[in-house]
Design brief:
The protein is built from 19 helices and ten strands. It is of the alpha+beta class.
Length: 540
């Protein structure tokens, strides 16, 4: 066994050293006391800690984070996927500090981001060194470095793992007539990571499909395969999108009233060279790829042309003010045109690696290019975030959800009727006559003692579909939404003996419970199918 490990280590010593240097370099800003913070760091750190509190209180999966929003309960888990965030949450439960838990999770994300791009390029080129080069370009690209060290865009960072899988999966399926399993894995991960990244990947993949579908011969067989993949992805991810759509149908949220408009955030052209654009390294790669394409257009495959042209269009749109003015608020969900650089970088890296492969350079030349580019990537990547190195805070012993509301900058998942001004009396219920009743929170459960003279009481909880209430004796009460401020109203409280003890908690909906079962069964079926297909292919 040891000799086998040594043989593998000797054979892949360059690969191992390359990956270790890249990962240590990209993680190096975290090798210090305190945590580098970004624009969204309070929100995402509060999500992690409130998720931990929800699990410890017996709520799993956690949909409403009861300690957020000044203990009014914030339904961020209904709209932001918590799937991967359970990793740092369980680290917190194990006793790891919030700072260390996040840093460990960030290290896992860096590794997964590199491995994802490595795997995709290796599938597309069958060249390990090109795959290593692609992994380095991706790992130190602006979307990754800025996402971690400036914007603290945790959900987008998670999605960066699956974006290459989805796009390469579509190329493999639509152009090379291969199984759509990689496409399915990519979109499953995207849906459980970040909705906006899923939408962007869907748009990119739709364009790739449209460019390839006219050349299909066995289109019926391919269409069946694609439909099966789509059904599998929908089934496995139903636990997320099913409950989310149910909540959207139940009420209107502030996300429908965008706090910023996409046409107000178009980048200036000079920012193309900075960390807000694609950066100098990717710009150089883009230009070199363009020159190669101009000289060899006729002899290159359609995958190279599609990936380069589509990537270039996405980069151009980041600075094309007129396009966003014409489309108006149609793309307001995107918020920032700069989000387009995430799929653009993936497409440009794919195009560049395919070009190098088609150039048939010597293996030594490819090694030299990979080593030189790794050094350049490390330098430019770390330099792009050098101004953030001292922007740190101590999160070792802080309880972040007690310091902030944890609503996020746009407060998107509050009901439209709910404002911060009404969230000022946590754990205080009111009767219709304005009488005050103090309560307490025990984990995810809320308890109030009220007099039995009234019938309806306003609870200090934000209404989401799925709340339940009952008396101490177990008699169910009616839970509804207060149309004025979006808080919970509990009615049906009557008693001839005076005080009534009310228990209120988020129990979820029938659809939520069904969705967990559907996703679990779907995952089991997909797993069995993949094992069966693998055994059939290998003859095992």
């Amino acid at each position: 066994m040891w000799k086998k490990v040594m043989r593998i280590g000797k054979k892949y010593r360059f690969d191992i050293l390359f990956v270790m240097i890249a990962l240590i370099a990209v993680f190096s800003p975290y090798l210090r006391q305190d945590l580098i913070i970004g624009s969204d760091s309070p929100f995402h750190l509060a999500r992690i800690d409130s998720l931990k509190e929800g699990i410890l209180a017996g709520g799993f999966p956690v949909k409403v984070h009861s300690v957020l929003c000044y203990q009014y309960g914030y339904g961020v888990g209904l709209f932001y996927p918590n799937f991967f965030l359970y990793i740092p949450a369980f680290l917190r439960i194990a006793g790891v500090s919030l700072e260390v838990a996040y840093k460990l999770y960030a290290g896992l994300l860096f590794l997964a981001i590199f491995c994802s791009m490595y795997y995709c390029v290796y599938k597309g080129t069958q060249d390990r060194v090109l795959a290593l080069l692609a992994g380095a370009l991706y790992l130190f690209s602006n979307p990754v470095m800025i996402g971690f060290y400036t914007d603290f865009a945790l959900a987008q960072n998670q999605a960066m793992i699956f974006l290459p899988l989805a796009i390469m999966g579509m190329f493999e399926f639509a152009s090379a007539d291969k199984s759509p399993w990689m496409l399915a894995v990519g979109f499953t991960g995207l849906i459980y990571s970040h909705v906006l990244s899923t939408v962007l990947a869907f748009g990119v993949c739709l364009v790739i499909l449209a460019c390839c579908v006219l050349r299909w011969r066995n289109w019926r067989e391919r269409l069946i395969k694609l439909c099966i993949a789509v059904i599998g992805v929908c089934g496995v991810t139903f636990a997320y999108w099913g409950p989310m759509l149910e909540q959207f149908a139940a009420q209107t949220y502030r996300v429908s009233q965008p706090w910023t408009h996409v046409y107000d955030n178009v980048l200036k052209l000079y920012l193309l060279f900075t960390n807000r654009g694609v950066g100098l390294v990717l710009l150089f790669v883009m230009m070199a790829t363009a020159f190669y394409l101009l000289g060899n257009w006729g002899g290159l495959g359609k995958e190279i042309k599609i990936s380069f042209l589509l990537g270039s269009v996405l980069v151009s749109l980041m600075f094309f003010q007129r396009f966003w003015n014409i489309t108006g608020s149609l793309f307001d969900f995107l918020q920032f045109p700069a989000r387009l650089k995430c799929p653009a970088v993936v497409l440009l890296i794919f195009a560049a690696m395919w070009c190098i492969k088609s150039a048939e350079l010597s293996q030594n030349a490819v090694y030299v290019i990979a080593v030189v580019m790794l050094g350049i990537c490390i330098y430019t990547g770390l330099d792009s975030v050098s101004d953030k190195m001292e922007n740190t805070e101590d999160f070792g012993n802080r309880v972040i959800y007690e310091e902030i509301a944890g609503l996020g900058s746009g407060e998107e998942w509050l009901p439209v009727e709910t404002t911060r001004e009404v969230l000022v009396t946590p754990l205080v219920a009111f009767s219709e006559e304005g009488e005050v009743f103090n309560g307490k929170r025990d984990g995810n459960d809320y308890y109030f003692t009220v007099n039995g003279e009234g019938n309806t009481y306003k609870m200090p909880l934000i209404w989401y579909k799925g709340y339940r209430a009952e008396t101490e004796e177990g008699n169910p009460l009616t839970v509804m939404k207060n149309a004025g401020d979006g808080l919970i109203l509990v009615s049906g409280v009557t008693s001839a003996e005076g005080d009534v003890n009310i228990h209120v908690w988020y129990d979820g909906t029938a659809l939520q419970k069904v969705s967990y079962i559907v996703s679990l069964i779907s995952a089991i079926i997909v797993g069995i199918w993949m094992v069966w297909k693998r055994k059939g292919r290998t003859g095992i």
